[in-house]
Amino acid sequence: MSDGALAQQTYRDTVAASLQDPAGFWGEAAGLIDWFTPPRQVLDDSRAPFYRWFPDGRLNVCFNALDRHVVHGRADQTALIYDSPVTGSRATYTYAQLLDLVARFAGVLRDLGVVKGDRVVVYMPMVPEAVVAMLACARIGAVHSVVFGGFAPAELAARLDDAAPKVVVSASCGIEPSRVVPYKPMLDEAIERSAHKPDHCVILQREQQRCEMGARDLDWKQLMNPDAVAPAECVPVAATDPLYVLYTSGTTGKPKGIVRDSGGYAVALRWSMTNLYGVEPGETWLCGSDVGWVVGHSYIVYAPLLTGATTVLFEGKPVGTPDAGTYWRLIDEHDVVAAFTAPTAIRAIKKQDPQGELVRRHDLSSLRTLFLAGERLDPDTWRWATDHLGVPVVDNWWQTETGWPIATNPVGVTLFDIKPGSPTLPTVGYDVQVLDERGAPVPPGVEGAICIRLPLPPGTLPTLWQDDDRYVSSYLSAYDGYYLTGDGGYLDEDGYLYVMGRTDDVLNVAGHRLSTGSLEEALAGHPSVAECAVIGVHDELKGQVPRALVVLKGGIDLDDEGRRRLEAELVRRVREEVGPVAALRQVDVVDGLPKTRSGKILRRTMRQIADGQEAAVPSTIEDVGVLEALGPVLRGDRTG
Ligand SMILES: CCC(=O)SCCNC(=O)CCNC(=O)[C@H](O)C(C)(C)COP(=O)(O)OP(=O)(O)OC[C@H]1O[C@@H](n2cnc3c(N)ncnc32)[C@H](O)[C@@H]1OP(=O)(O)O
């Protein structure tokens, strides 16, 4: 057997062993983390399906991300590089400097009355202060909940009500390539709309646009004055205590608060950084996402810092800041060994630089691997990146719920043959099964529901924030003993996984997960709309974009001009209620929506027609004539 084949067999054996003896595998991996009280028990299954990892261990995640590196000789190593083409600024922070800032901001939070278990909402652009705020929460055992800046006040308000934070940390503005986005008025509006009111808002005043301060607002810079605040020490927490709550979209408008525990997450991320992403302490890593998404939590902030690596925090876009070569500049200038972004980013770059001329202007010799995740990696995008970068381009598949890859090519251990369209093999700890409607595993090559046999490995969600029932009904009730991913796909003869797309009504727009429910709620709130449906249709650049079909209330009869005006109004309404990331561009006023006899709207069937696929029309359809009448609108033969 060649060395490569041996390494591959060893990895497959390791995955099998991790499933047969999870406590053995993760008990050993726990040694990657410094504990105040090392765990004696690895897995508590006494309340299955609510599993708990390292139940009697005590640690502090911030200590593991910062203090221990300072203690062990990395004080002067760069921990974080802030590179912001949109403001024309750059800064570097050593581990000692980042620790100083985090300990001081932890002191600020403590002085504002935040104690272990309290929630702190972070609504910030891609600035170092966002990372400082997250780690400061971890330091004192507070639970952070970061809300992506591209969400509108109504979405932020829903999260404020659910998380009930004592403090909100925000900024005066964010900077998008074409405009300055005033965050503070959106925060004020969200607090106005929410039933829960935070005690304080800590605001980072940015020079690009300062904001008015209100009665509950405090200035970040004043609070951080070393004369005004004493640094806070790390508070030991139970491994099972929540580190953060991150909201994600389900099929309804109400977002789901994904809970992340402390110990399991720290162990899984530290393990993944070296074994799956191949990054060692001291190396530099770029993750081109946003701290508001799980990729940002796990692979901009926690995993690289837990590893003692250097992380690049990029405030810019893959194109337009200033051009489609910006990622290659980052890799070149900061000696990045591995980079991570979403396929949509590469599609945007490819569109502007099809021949890869900007790639060739940079020295990419430091780069070993490009990782892509967040949506399906189409083979054309994979091919372009592979051809132009000359390094392995690795698809990895995971979810907000899991926090780290369910399936990937484990380059830190060995590189398996890449099959375009597949994120390679299920990862250590994930017993991935493809099930048919009755819950039986299907043979290789046959599509079904992708499920994971319980228990899920450390680092994955133990439950939803204050909603065990919804955790069970959303994820565990479809198939007894399995977690339902919500994606469909298949395994091939070699065990490679192929993820074909959502089986529910969740949208994935440019790697942003959005709920049809929240868009529909925004549309339905318009006084002229009787009912509506949102479907996700294929888009060359964003992967998927939403399309809306609305039925007007009886008695409203609009001419062409009136319809166009209403459609534009509805587009604007979704932007204002959900946020610009929803990217709704097309609304069609139609006479009726196709439904089953029990009243379920046939979104999937409409999506298939809009995408030019063969449509599955259920036998339970109420009136097939409604669907036939919609055909030309969905196919684009006729709009409006
Ligand atoms: C593996 C587990 C996971 O799936 S975690 C999720 C992983 N997903 C990601 O990392 C997201 C990947 N996508 C991206 O980073 C962006 O879409 C990239 C590729 C950078 C393109 O960005 P952009 O050009 O802004 O397009 P977009 O579709 O994201 O944005 C649409 C409109 O929203 C706006 N927006 C975006 N971010 C913000 C923000 N932080 N604050 C305020 N506004 C924001 C954009 O400006 C854009 O607005 P407009 O419609 O052009 O006016």
Give your account of this protein's structure.
The structure is a single chain. The strands form ten sheets. Strands 5-4-17-16-18-19-20 form a seven-stranded mixed sheet, sandwiched between helices. The chain has two domains: 407 residues, Rossmann fold; 126 residues, GMP Synthetase, Chain A, domain 3 (2-Layer Sandwich). It is of the alpha/beta class and 640 residues long. β16, α10 and β17 form a beta-alpha-beta unit. The chain is built from 19 helices and 31 strands. Helix content is 33%, strand content 23%. The site of propionyl Coenzyme A has 29 residues, from β9, α10 and α12.
Shape descriptor: globular
Query: Which stretches are low in confidence, meaning pLDDT under 50 for 5 or more residues running?
Result: none
Could you describe the largest sheet, including whether it forms a barrel?
7 strands, mixed
Counting structural domains, the number is: 2
Would you state the CATH class of the largest domain? Alpha Beta
Give me the count of strands.
31
Strand content: 15-25%
Which CATH architecture of the largest domain would you pick? 3-Layer(aba) Sandwich
Kindly report the spatial arrangement of strands forming the biggest sheet: 5-4-17-16-18-19-20
Percentage of residues in helical conformation: 25-40%
- Return the structural class: alpha/beta
Our measurement of the CA-to-CA distance between the termini, rounded to an integer number of angstroms, reads 63 Å
